Amino acid sequence: MASAHEFFLSSTADDARAVVGKSLADQGFAVETTSAGGFVAKRGSVPMTVLFGGLAGRQLAMTFRVEIMELDGKIVARLSRITASSVVTGGAIGASKADSAFKATANALGAALHDAGILTSSRQVG
Known about the structure:
Layout: E1 4-9, H1 13-26, E2 30-33, E3 39-43, H2 46-52, E4 62-71, E5 74-82, H3 84-115, E6 119-125
Antiparallel strand pairs: 1-5, 1-6, 2-3, 3-4, 4-5
């Protein structure tokens, strides 16, 4: 279970933010900008997750973070998961569903960056 996915980009940080923010919103996430210029993306309902656990379906609460930074002269967007919410409130089923959602989000984000012509490579981390 990867805990992060890094996307290496051939763009400016601002261009990366525009593509990443739109992709997350298109996937149904409520997107908030962080003070460091990244994003916190939330989807689902905490009350529904508390009530129904992993059986909350699309209402399963999950939160992902995207950091956009420069490493070795390249812009990198790092998608990472915040697992505590789905594990604690959704149990093992919630954790499994959050893992599937994380993979789907990483794939959709990679596709959006590719379609924008700025993705040079990507990798799973941890």
